[in-house]
Amino acid sequence: MASTQAAAATEQAPTKNPTLLAWVAKMAAMTQPDRIVWCDGSEAEKQRLTEQAVKDGTLIPLNPKTRPGCYLHRSNPNDVARVEHLTFICTPNKTDAGPTNNWMEPEAAYTKLSQLFEGCMKGRTMYVVPYAMGPLGGASTKIGVELTDSDYVVLNMRIMTRMGKAALDMLGDSDDFNRGLHSTGDVNPDRRYICHFPQDNTIWSFGSGYGGNVLLGKKCLALRIGSYLGREEGWLAEHMLILGVTSPKGETTYIAAAFPSACGKTNFAMMIPPKEYAGWKIETVGDDIAWMRPGPDGRLYAINPEAGYFGVVPGTNYKTNPNAMETISKDTLFTNVALTPDGDVWWEGKDGEVPEELIDWQGKPWKKGSTEKAAHPNSRFTAPMSNNPVLSAKANDPMGVPISAIIFGGRRSNTVPLVLQAFNWTHGVFLGATMGSETTAAATGKVGVVRRDPMAMLPFCGYHMGDYLQHWLDMQKSIPQLPKIFQVNWFRQDKNGKFIWPGFGDNMRVLEWIVNRVQGRVPTQETLLGWVPRQDQGLNLNGLDLPAEAIQEATSIKEDEWKSELKSQEVFFEQLGTKAPEALMLQRKLLIARLDG
Ligand code: TSX
Ligand code: MN
């Protein structure tokens, strides 16, 4: 049976790539599917798979009048988020994975997971999903092939990547592709593993059907394997949005920005400037991942490897993100949101009245006033980026965009001022390395605890975090025209726990200052922490109803807060041991000296 299937896989295959054929045959021999289907990415294939997913209950069609082309999926309630404790980096040496990753020895991991994969696709279909991460034909673009027994995964990958024949054509006969193997298995959390084999460019994922665990192009390839390849090949795979700001004069500046979860990356990437900024435009290149490498002109060029958005739904509304609301109005897959009686979707934080009655994310009746959430806090939309009203034309440019500024952000109720510019690249890397963000109720339950999250990469770095920070430092030698680095904090609170900065569209005011700094147009004020906007010639606050004291408070630097901040940073650096880069230790000493001096 198994060998027949393996032979059949080769016969029907729309490729002659010998490495790919041999690998698919080998994986089919292990997992023993009843059928093998090579995905071509066509419209007809999408219709076929969608119909089948509706028939088997994987997808619920939504009201074609209010949500045309949209479907709802409910995951197993035990399978609603990434599982960091079950995510492994499998390198020969434990130190290569570092202290911030779980590690398994590669042979031990292959053996353990082979036992789970053995025969797991009996009675099922194995889909062969070739996909490109990045615009087709681009020098930065990478090819992956995901083998999966989930039609939900195929339909998501179709939105999130350039999937099908085009990717296979780009691969040709090359053996340079990521080998991804996924089975939903029995969705048992005790038999769930997400294993990365950077040396083999391989990912094996078993026992989950959810998002980042199974859409292998995203966190697994584009970040964990990508960061590993980036170090070997001299580029950066980052957890960053990419946006373009165009001034009324028509000058466009491209900016990449890293924020930990729950800081509004997608909102920032699609932001609409306030009315005082008529003639300014923000366009989205990407909302989650940036691959950046030095270009022929000495600037740092970024591509968005993805083709869609896999965004958190709760909190999305016409005030926080009108462009996201438009983006998810059609051809969108919703996962774990609530269903309204008229076949629309609902979530906490949606515009309008709370409906009287709903079906909650678990498929149970829900009544207004219930203490339970109707949508899961980590419920998601999968939407094609082509739906985004402010999508940058450059999102499909294989060259990518030249990055002039890099922003590191975090959610901090105190300590970190609204905006500052790093003194230089090394200081900027220090700002990225010391990023921290306060937990929110939605994520953990414990509110306001600072978690260190260097460059927002803690869960996504595929090798030792100390080596990763050193790689960032080393990159300055290969980028003649370095982007300027900035730190921002939209989340500073006053004594009464109220957010001081209005945020959202008004972040345009901070962006304008960053653009002016990059173009060398405004003078600045030096502080202990970096360069900040001057009182005069600083931030444009026209039309903002903010008292001078509020601005003072949002931008203030309190030395006692910084003394405890430095202690908290030390705990993180100690974790890196001897791999904590010397240049960052020196930055730390300089900051201490400035504070004590
Ligand atoms: O996304 C956010 N951004 C970036 C937007 C471009 N959020 C939401 C974070 C959760 C995903 C923000 N929340 C931002 C922000 O700039 N700022 C805040 C804090 C805040 C919340 C509410 C108000 C002001 C600030 N104002 C009122 O509610 C009226
Ligand atoms: Mn992300």
Short description:
By secondary structure, the protein is α/β, with parallel strands linked by helices.
Shape: globular
Number of strands: 31
Distance linking N and C termini = 76 Å
Give a quick account of the main beta sheet: strands, pairing sense, barrel closure.
9 strands, mixed
Say which molecules are bound, naming each kind only once: ligand TSX, manganese (II) ion
What's the architecture of the largest domain, going by CATH? Alpha-Beta Complex
CATH topology of the largest domain: Phosphoenolpyruvate Carboxykinase, domain 3
Number of domains: 3
Beta-strand residue fraction: 15-25%
Mean pLDDT: 96
The parts where pLDDT drops under 50 for at least 5 residues are none
Structural class, by secondary structure, is alpha/beta
Q: What portion of residues is helical?
A: 25-40%
- Kindly provide the radius of gyration, computed on alpha-carbon positions and rounded to a whole number of angstroms: 24 Å
Per-chain topology:
Elements: H1 2-12, H2 18-31, E1 35-38, H3 43-55, E2 60-61, E3 71-73, E4 87-89, H4 94-97, E5 102-103, H5 106-117, E6 125-133, E7 142-148, H6 151-160, E8 162-163, H7 165-171, E9 178-183, E10 193-197, E11 202-206, H8 211-214, H9 217-233, E12 236-238, E13 240-246, E14 252-258, H10 265-269, E15 281-286, E16 290-294, E17 300-303, E18 308-312, H11 322-327, E19 333-335, E20 338-339, E21 345-346, E22 357-359, E23 365-367, E24 380-384, E25 401-409, E26 419-421, H12 425-433, E27 436-438, E28 450-452, H13 465-475, E29 484-488, H14 507-518, E30 525-526, E31 531-532, H15 548-555, H16 559-575, H17 582-596
Parallel strand pairs: 1-6, 3-19, 4-5, 4-10, 7-9, 9-11, 14-25, 25-29
Antiparallel strand pairs: 2-3, 6-7, 6-8, 10-11, 12-16, 13-14, 13-15, 16-17, 17-25, 18-24, 19-24, 20-21, 22-23, 26-29, 27-28, 30-31
The structure holds ligand TSX and manganese (II) ion.
